[in-house]
Specification:
The protein is an alpha/beta fold. It is 57% helix and 12% strand. The chain is built from 15 helices and 7 strands. It binds guanosine-5'-diphosphate (GDP). The site of guanosine-5'-diphosphate has 16 residues, from helix 4. Its EC number is 3.6.-.-.
């Protein structure tokens, strides 16, 4: 399929074209990369935008159950929702948590939903860069909401925060001690903390946990551009579906507020600049993995190892060689 045809099919909301386009942007082949760059430039002209929602939480907190319930609620209301995963572990295992067919079973079959597993790549940076491009493709395909899910293990949240408009943290009901262990950096990224499993025996603990998080959030600096009561903590249950409507209302309020205040557009411009820098840095590093740089690097490395040159002198020569390349 040529790029023009792919762009047209994608704009018309053709899911197969969307899936193929995502495969194209994930490809490591340089001719594919050229096509991907062309496709993204073409689609950008449409200016379609979705709400980009980041969702993070440790394994077992209920992310897939939440996405299934929350996504189904919105899909049933007629909203079109795309779910993309950023899974750092897929880089190691080569597979993906979302590859498991039992996840989001109903949502994955819903005509208003599109679910795509994490690309398997060697580096977290690569996964995040391509996920950002996949978000742009989903927007061009007319989705209203793009949910970017990540496993809360540190590095991946920071990357997802650089892709999304609003960042949600899903937490489990817990005692005060566990709350102490939550990294400040992650709390600072969150626009909303949803304490999941607020049902049955866990309801009382969940209510206390919400109060604890609300207290902790108040101690963090409020973002001056946001409404008074954000970032906020609230209880939800992905199983009983309690609190899901309310969570969506709150999210929509925050999104509308940021849009009206111009913060939304500013954040997106900053993110675009960030990813430009990342792309250039990545490109520069990949020069080292190709000839002729690779050969020169190996030769100089051997000379350093043999004691014929100092590491400093060899590095200076390498950089001079790159300057001439
Ligand atoms: P993930 O690893 O974060 O994707 O978590 P899962 O969605 O796979 O859920 C982990 C476990 O928590 C499963 O056994 C779910 O049934 C359970 N779970 C998820 N959401 C809820 C909830 O709202 N209430 C209760 N009681 N259990 C839940």
């Amino acid at each position: 399929m040529d790029i023009g045809t792919m762009a047209r099919a994608l704009r018309a909301g053709d899911r197969r074209a969307l899936a193929r386009a995502i495969t194209l942007i994930e490809s490591a082949r340089s001719d594919h990369r050229d096509q991907a760059v062309e496709l993204l430039s073409l689609l950008r002209e449409d200016g379609r935008e979705a709400l980009r929602l980041g969702l993070s939480g440790t394994p077992g907190v209920g992310k897939s159950t939440f996405i299934e319930s929350f996504g189904m609620m919105l899909a049933e209301e007629g909203k079109r929702i795309a779910v993309l995963a950023v899974d750092p572990s897929s880089a190691r295992s080569g597979g993906s948590i979302l590859g498991d067919k039992t996840r989001m079973e109903q949502l994955s079959r819903h005509p208003n939903a599109f679910i795509r597993p994490s690309p398997s790549r060697a580096h977290m940076g690569g996964i995040a860069r391509r996920t950002r491009e996949a978000v742009a493709l989903c927007e061009a395909a007319g989705f209203d909401l793009v949910l970017i899910e990540t496993v809360g293990v540190g590095q991946s949240e920071t990357m997802v925060a650089e892709i999304c408009d609003i960042f949600l943290l899903l937490m489990a009901p817990a005692g005060g001690d566990e709350l102490q262990g939550v990294k400040r950096g992650i709390m600072e990224m969150a626009d909303m903390i949803l304490v999941n499993k607020a049902d049955g025996d866990l309801l009382a603990t969940a209510t206390r946990t919400v109060a604890d998080y609300a207290g902790a959030l108040r101690l963090l600096r409020r973002r001056p551009q946001d409404p008074q009561d954000f970032p906020k903590a609230m209880p939800v249950s992905a199983v009983s579906k309690a609190g899901l409507e309310k969570a969506w209302e709150e999210l929509s309020t925050l999104a509308a507020w940021r849009q009206a205040g111009g913060h939304w557009a500013r954040r997106r411009s900053d993110q675009a600049a960030h990813w430009f820098g990342e792309e250039v840095r990545h490109g520069l590093l990949s020069v080292l993995e190709r000839e002729p740089a690779r050969g020169i690097m190996a030769r100089l490395g051997a000379e350093v190892a043999a004691g014929d040159r100092t590491p400093e002198a060899a590095a200076a020569e390498m950089l001079r060689a790159l300057g001439r390349a």
